[in-house]
């Protein structure tokens, strides 16, 4: 029986700092596909000059769901391995992936547990202790929910499995980079809320922002992460606040 084959997929924009390490960590895949959103840095040049066997496509970014679904459409193999450019597959996780998909009976999708790094330092709490995302799945269930522009998820899953080895997530190397992502995600979330007819309410903006901070800093033990936990909790609150600020603009 022929071994199952994997298509490793990445959607990227201006990832010149991350792209090489990310690609190296998925070299075991049978094909690697990168969908670029017309990067303005050296991302595309690096791929073309150093990784000629990689299938490179470009498409203007609208939202994460559309980019992921388009990238999936280019894949030819039965298994999809999705990786963000700031994530790394460890050798241990690689071996577990290859072993798992060769089993006679498998799940249709698998969660990867993640170890989170912020500005080069490991974060142990702040909600990251339970962080996991579906990164490996069969192409037959490979469709992201089009009702979500951010925090996108597969739309037709039943009882996914969880792999035991960790995916490394080197989230941001600076506060400014994280802040920029918060603003970008907040605009997309505001668009989702507006299209669902959800009105802007000041009390909801303030209460959700306050609870976001409390949830991460206290309930999810961000306080134990010291300054990193305080910063991440603030940015979580800011994300909620900015989402409703952008929603208010849509109704003005």
Biggest sheet architecture = 9 strands, mixed
- What's the CATH superfamily of the largest domain, by name? Spore Coat Polysaccharide Biosynthesis Protein SpsA, Chain A
What is the top-level CATH class of the largest domain? Alpha Beta
Low-confidence stretches: none
Q: Report the CATH architecture of the largest domain.
A: Alpha-Beta Complex
Number of strands: 9
- The mean pLDDT is 94
SSE ordering: EHEHEHEEHEEEEHHH
| Beta fraction | 15-25%
Helix percentage range: 40-55%
Protein architecture, described:
By secondary structure, this protein is of the alpha/beta class. It folds into two domains: 6-172, Alpha-Beta Complex (Spore Coat Polysaccharide Biosynthesis Protein SpsA, Chain A); 175-251, no CATH class. Helices cover 40% and strands 22% of the residues. The chain has seven helices and nine strands; from the N terminus they run βαβαβαββαββββααα. The protein has helices spanning 19-25, 43-50, 64-73, 91-101, 175-195, 202-219, 226-251; strands at residues 6-12, 31-36, 55-58, 79-82, 87-89, 109-118, 121-123, 132-138, 161-172. Strands 1, 2, 3, 4, 5, 6, 7, 8 and 9 form a nine-stranded mixed beta sheet that branches. Strand 2 (31-36), helix 2 (43-50) and strand 3 (55-58) form a beta-alpha-beta unit. Helix 5 packs parallel to helix 7 and helix 6 (202-219) runs antiparallel to helix 7. It is globular and about 60 Å long. The protein starts with 5 loop residues before the first strand and ends with a helix.
């Amino acid at each position: 029986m022929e071994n199952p084959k994997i298509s490793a997929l990445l959607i990227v924009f201006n990832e010149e700092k991350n792209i090489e390490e990310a690609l190296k960590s998925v070299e075991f895949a049978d094909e690697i596909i990168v969908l670029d959103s017309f990067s303005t840095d050296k991302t595309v040049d690096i791929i073309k000059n150093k990784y000629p066997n990689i299938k490179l496509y470009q498409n203007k970014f609208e939202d994460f769901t559309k980019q992921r679904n388009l990238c999936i459409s280019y894949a030819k193999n039965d298994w999809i391995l999705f990786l963000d450019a700031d994530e790394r597959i460890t050798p241990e996780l690689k071996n577990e992936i290859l072993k798992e998909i060769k089993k006679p009976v498998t799940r249709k999708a698998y969660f990867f547990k993640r170890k989170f790094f912020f500005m080069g330092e490991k974060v142990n709490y702040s909600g990251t202790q339970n962080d996991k995302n579906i990164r490996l799945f069969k192409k037959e269930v490979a469709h992201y929910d089009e009702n979500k522009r951010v925090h996108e998820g597969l739309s037709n899953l039943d009882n996914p499995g969880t792999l035991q080895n960790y995916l490394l997530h080197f989230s941001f190397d600076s506060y400014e980079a994280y802040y920029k992502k918060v603003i970008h995600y907040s605009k997309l979330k505001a668009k989702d809320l507006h299209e669902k007819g959800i009105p802007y309410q000041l009390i909801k903006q303030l209460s959700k922002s306050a609870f976001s901070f409390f949830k991460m800093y206290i309930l999810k033990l961000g306080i134990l992460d010291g300054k990193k936990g305080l910063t991440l909790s603030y940015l979580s609150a800011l994300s909620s606040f900015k989402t409703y600020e952008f929603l208010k603009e849509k109704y003005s």
